[in-house]
Write a structure and sequence with these properties.
Layout (H helix, E strand, L loop, with lengths): L3 E5 L14 E5 L9 E6 L3 E11 L2 E5 L8 H4 L1 E2 L4 E9 L9
Antiparallel strand pairs: 1-2, 2-7, 3-4, 3-7, 4-5, 5-6
Length: 100
């Protein structure tokens, strides 16, 4: 990955922070901290956006922010080298105005 990567978020696993259709800009990072939102190339689920829950020598723990997201247990621990970037900026889609 280059220094930056811009993606369009698909799905609701990070709903309140990054709803479906959001644009998110990630920057390359050598270190991550719990609470940061990261773009990860997951060995089982492909490219995903999740929040870091823990960092240890055996990898990082991840979670989604939506109760319907894949569980932290199913995500398992991911090696730090799988992190493609840390969230730098995001733009949420415009909400549709209701009729009436």
């Amino acid at each position: 990955m280059g220094l930056f990567r811009l993606i369009k978020v698909e799905g609701d696993s990070m709903a309140r922070m990054l709803p479906d259709g959001s644009f998110a800009l990630f920057r390359a990072a050598r270190r991550v901290r719990p609470g940061q939102t990261v773009l990860v190339q997951h060995p089982r689920f492909g490219r995903i956006v999740k929040q870091v829950t823990s960092c240890t020598d055996d990898g990082i723990g991840l979670r989604g922010l939506n109760m319907k997201s894949t569980s932290a247990e199913d995500l398992g621990r991911v090696p730090l080298k799988a992190v493609e970037g840390v969230l730098l900026w995001s733009l949420k889609p415009r909400q549709k105005l209701g009729a009436g």
